[in-house]
Amino acid sequence: MTVLPSDFAAAMERLWTLKLGNVAGPAFRELWTRMGETFHLAIRQNMKASALSIAPAWQVLAPEMGVGKTQGALLYMAMMAKASRKSSPPLRIGGLFVARTIQQCEDAARTINELAGFEAAITRHSSNVVTLQECRRFPVIVITHAAVTQSWAQSYSGIVDAYGSWEGGRRCLVIIDEALANAVEFHSIDEGSLHRVLGLRVSAEFKAKHQQAFDAVSSMLDFFKAVSSRVEEISPIWSEQDPLSSGQIDELEILFRQLVSDLKSVSSYDPIWNDPDSKNAELQHVWETLSAIIQLYRHWALFSIQGAHKALTTGKEKVPRFFAPVVLNATANQDPVLDYRRAKLVSLPKVRSYRNLTIHILRSNGLGKTAMRKAGEARLRHLAQFVSEHTKPGDKWMVVTHLATEALARKHLPEEIALTGHWGSLDGLNDFRDCNKAVLFGLSFRDPAWPVSMYFALRGAQTKEWLRSKEAKAIRHKLEVMSIAAQVIQALGRPRSRKVIDEEGNCLPTDVFVTLPNTSVGRDVESAIGEAFTGAVIRDWAYDLDGLGCQSKQKASPSVAVVTAMKNKSPGRYLISAIAKEVGLTSTETANLKDALRKKRAIVDDLRRLGVSYSVEGSGRGAKSYLVKR
């Protein structure tokens, strides 16, 4: 039993206004009705599907931000599950909801259950022990993006066998929330990664046992050096003829897997194999390098140069073979994967007005990670001064930086008025919805070879001649613009601009300060911003990026910077001296940090909540202090 679009729109208006405290008008009701119609159509298409059916185009809902697309999808799932209880098995309809992160999965299932009034949904991910058999008891299953881009999920049968049915019937509605993460998988090697594998600290007996595997890595290194000596630009190395047969590649993969398996039992030969964190890091690097070699042979190889760094890269699309899914993505126009899938953009009414949003744009160079890292201490100290000088009572700031400089931002920004985030972690977040001011400081640029690698992964490898063509130049430009525009538009939709205050879809006054490259790419991104935020006021931002000669009056917060740095780290063991250098601590600040850790002050509790502990190895002048994240 499905949900009528009109019933869904009415229920959504009640949720939107009465529970969430927003405002809605006729245009919003029309939008939600279209959403209900889209979900209803997807269910009908799945109910009619058979093994011989040709999959229809994916449907994409790309409304403006702040109109309840995710809440609406969860409400529909809840209403569908509730309505299905009136039917008898096997006619009860269920659904699959795909969220980006584990936390978003948990939040989604909790919301569905609250709205349904019973346990209609359950999550399944790497942090719980829910089995597929347990999932069969629930009409709605919520999983992560990563779950559907794994190799087993690439076939339609893999997805259907795992999640396509439950004990009441079929799961006929599949909703993917936000742009599908890791829909294209890239593998890369460089000279350093190959040398690291060949230089593994293992016994002579171990190397002799795996001589064939090491010889294969050595051959790849020789090939890499030969290519590096003769190629001076981005270029496909092999695309029309594979250097190894399929059978040879399979044999090589068996050799590599055996090498890694035996590495897991290596111990006592070198200290690196006796420390669990160091051992896991080494095993991961070895497998990533060996896996990249296999994938380079299986697919295509693109040679790239970025400064002094040279690499061989390959990739493949990992788009799951869903039948008639619905994608929720406010930046769908900037998603090359949806373009590749020839997804159908559902026509939706414009319901938002952004006339109260002012976007101040600084057009500059030196916005990438390397430049921002190099000048990070001075730039972020200057930015903290700007934030303080432009703060009025009641103001709250969102500040977005690179991952590598977020801890520095946290160190200098006034903690009571500023929240920080970093590029790559903003999609779908509501953490900044009360911020009336924001700064998007720097941009997360892709590797120059990324547009070519993305195109090859989605469309197939091309020739050297094609790379020099006008078509290739236009495609590379388009993909670069799409990549930057998607992240900037997502970030612009995170602060108070997302909250609707009247039937016209206006937001409360919000100011966002944005840095864009002073290039044709930057100008095209600016155009995309204007299209996404109808009516927004766009002004120049008169700001000196480096603030030469400026002295900040803000008091730095070293402890907060260290906690932020560790929040963004992967599990592992980190020297405190390295963390201190990363966040720009002086020798006195570093000594104070160690003293606070020894005396179990507040920072210890803050770190413990992140799964981080403090440890010291050795004694006296030779002692080393670590922060260990589990």
Q: How is this structure best described in words?
A:
This protein has 630 residues and is α/β, with parallel strands linked by helices. Helix content is 45%, strand content 17%. Strands 1, 2, 3, 4, 5, 6, 11 and 12 form an eight-stranded mixed β-sheet that branches. A six-stranded parallel β-sheet has the order 15-14-16-17-13-18. A four-stranded antiparallel β-sheet has the order 7-10-9-8. The radius of gyration is 26 Å and the shape is globular.
Number of helices: 24
Distance between the termini: 46 Å
Shape: globular
User: Would you tell me the overall average pLDDT?
Assistant: 91
Major sheet: size, sense and barrel closure? Answer: 8 strands, mixed
Spans of at least 5 consecutive residues whose pLDDT stays below 50 are none
Overall strand count: 21
Q: Approximately how much beta-strand content do the residues carry?
A: 15-25%
Which structural class fits the helix and strand makeup?
A: alpha/beta
Structural Rg = 26 Å
Helical coverage, percent range: 40-55%
